[in-house]
Amino acid sequence: MMGHQLPLSVVILISGRGSNMVSIIADAEKADAPYKVLGVLSNRPQAAGLQHAKVAGIATAVLDHTQYASRAEFDEALAERIECWNPDLVVLAGFMRILSPGFVNRYAGRLINIHPSLLPAFQGLDTHRRALEAGVTEHGATVHFVTEELDAGPVILQAHVPVYQNDTEQLLATRVLEQEHVLYPRAIRHLAASKV
Ligand code: GAR
């Protein structure tokens, strides 16, 4: 994040619940936060996170991907809408869409994601179930730069949690999510301070 003015300006992209978004917005409101949230955009009109953002007084936008003929057209509209805010950083927080190479390259080095595993382990979906099936004793979450290859960009920060003998998918998901809520604001602060 070389060359930006403090505070770093951030737009958050969501698709659903938005609990990571909530923790980022709360952190950005702290007096010492080196970043601010300009807006939240969802590709799903019904995403619960949109209401949370509104309650927090954050501008919201919806871009329903089902209304676009192709991924490329949606991604073009997405970039145009994001540019209305002109953010330094685009933060994917449970944004469950694959982005086209054109979009990813446009935001190279300014586009980050949180993934519920210790990447490179368990790329893709159902990470908690797969971690249990694999019998790992350690699991966690990763904040990384987004590149053309899914869930494979350079790691910014990771959080580790133990996996217990009698764990269920739900217990493990909750344990990881708690750490995600700490990890994502920390990662954004690191970027704001150009520590990465
Ligand atoms: C989070 O656990 C996030 O790591 C995951 O979706 C959840 C969103 O929760 N993201 C991915 O799986 C991306 N491949 P939230 O909407 O409550 O932040």
UniProtKB/TrEMBL annotation:
Keyword field contains Nucleotide-binding: no
The UniProt annotation places (6R)-10-formyltetrahydrofolate binding at R71, M96, R97, I98, L99, N113
UniProt function note: Catalyzes the transfer of a formyl group from 10-formyltetrahydrofolate to 5-phospho-ribosyl-glycinamide (GAR), producing 5-phospho-ribosyl-N-formylglycinamide (FGAR) and tetrahydrofolate.
Output the superkingdom of the source species. Answer: Bacteria
List positions binding N(1)-(5-phospho-beta-D-ribosyl)glycinamide. Answer: G18, S19, N20
Q: Which family does it belong to?
A: Belongs to the GART family.
Location of the Formyl transferase N-terminal domain: 10-188
Q: Which SUPFAM superfamilies match?
A: Formyltransferase
Q: Which residues of this protein are catalytic?
A: H115
User: Source species, please?
Assistant: Candidatus Venteria ishoeyi
- Which pathway, per its entry? Purine metabolism; IMP biosynthesis via de novo pathway; N(2)-formyl-N(1)-(5-phospho-D-ribosyl)glycinamide from N(1)-(5-phospho-D-ribosyl)glycinamide (10-formyl THF route): step 1/1
Q: Which Pfam families is this protein grouped with?
A: Formyl_trans_N
Report keywords, A-Z: Purine biosynthesis, Transferase
Presence of keyword Nucleotide-binding: no
Which InterPro entries does this chain map to?
Formyl_transf_N, Formyl_transf_N_sf, GART, GART_AS
Taxonomy of origin reads:
Bacteria, Pseudomonadati, Pseudomonadota, Gammaproteobacteria, Thiotrichales
Q: Which GO terms describe its molecular function?
A: phosphoribosylglycinamide formyltransferase activity
Could you tell me which PANTHER family the record lists for this protein?
PHOSPHORIBOSYLGLYCINAMIDE FORMYLTRANSFERASE
Enzymatic reactions: N(1)-(5-phospho-beta-D-ribosyl)glycinamide + (6R)-10-formyltetrahydrofolate = N(2)-formyl-N(1)-(5-phospho-beta-D-ribosyl)glycinamide + (6S)-5,6,7,8-tetrahydrofolate + H(+)
Per the UniProt record, which EC number(s) apply here? 2.1.2.2
Which Gene3D superfamilies does the record associate with it? Formyl transferase, N-terminal domain
Q: What GO biological process, any one, is recorded here?
A: 'de novo' IMP biosynthetic process
- Which GO cellular component term is one of those annotated? cytosol
Q: Annotated site (Raises pKa of active site His), which positions?
A: D151
Q: What is this protein called?
A: Phosphoribosylglycinamide formyltransferase
